[in-house]
């Protein structure tokens, strides 16, 4: 039987001063937003401390935390019964668990495992879209409600409904669990930009979170403890990092990594920069990866892996490629050149998707600069499509004119010419290195393509004229 009881907040008003020690869970679905941005938008100004859980949820030590934020969508990683009970025990001892999700738009065959966690507390994320305008319970003290859109909730048990849609369907609700609370809400009520520039609803979210944690005081001298991916495997000099949830796919991605690494050494003509590529982390996401030099993180089911192989090859090539670029990141095209390296690996492995990706990206640039001779990559308003596509086109032209292996000549020259401790690496420097790589002054050619480079602005000597 469905039963929703609207209860007044026990304090009569939201608390304003409770110290928050939060942990954001990214063990089921990694997002850059939950990797510190949620904290920055809704908690950080009030003090406290935060951490991340990268590892298996039920192994997380929550003794010094009073807020646990869980958010995921279509992830193959299930919420283990032990993890669900871990969340329940945390709430019963006074902690607050915040469960944010939305299943609107998901195909029936897509996994939505966070539903199991929510249902353990009597909440279900429905596929029914919320109708605006939304309305807030007066106890929330919301001066206005912002909403990116999303679904509604079905609730069973004693819940305080904090926000409803135009049809009176719940969108955000809380309930007591032991001495603590569980808050369940539609993800669209909260920010989502990776740069943390959209703190929507912060006016009422901040005091709400402080109120939820009021029954579990924390010691400022003991910040919450995050958790790294707890399972590791040494494969030669590489440490493979994963959790119980990504263990099933770790070896398959590692096998692709070693194939890509060998190919990158051929494409660039040099090994990766010293001290890089020592760890490979399995990220529970289909949304990409990252590189920190020594470690690269790879989305475990990027592009439909393992059924679709090329996107994973390109992604590993991109993230690992940054380790060839270091210690001096490329100007302007640091991201494009990394993807270009991944594309070259795909081409070497005979994957037609690689050439298709290359041609598609260049075609998008031609929509803005048909002859590739007008738009300056250094211009502040240069379209992103031009920065990527024109960069790819430049590399292809250099390869056609000064190849085969022009890219390898460039990386070899870069390693040879740039001394340790260099403070900057500009596009002027880069063109000078390219000039040395191919034995020809390329500044006139780049300027003829609308790119404002100047040999007077670099300390890298140009090759002697024949």
CATH superfamily of the largest domain: Neutral Protease Domain 2
Going across the major beta sheet, what is the strand order?
2-1-3-4-10-9-8-6
Name of the CATH class of the largest domain: Mainly Alpha
Q: Give the topology string: H per helix, E per strand.
A: EHEEHEHEEEEEEHEEHEEEHHHHHHH
Uncertain residue segments: 1-15
Note the main sheet.
8 strands, mixed
The tally of structural domains comes to: 2
Overall, the morphology is: elongated
Beta percentage is 15-25%
Separate helix tally: 12
Q: So, CATH architecture of the largest domain?
A: Orthogonal Bundle
Spatial separation of the terminal alpha carbons: 88 Å
The fold-level CATH name of the largest domain is: Neutral Protease, domain 2
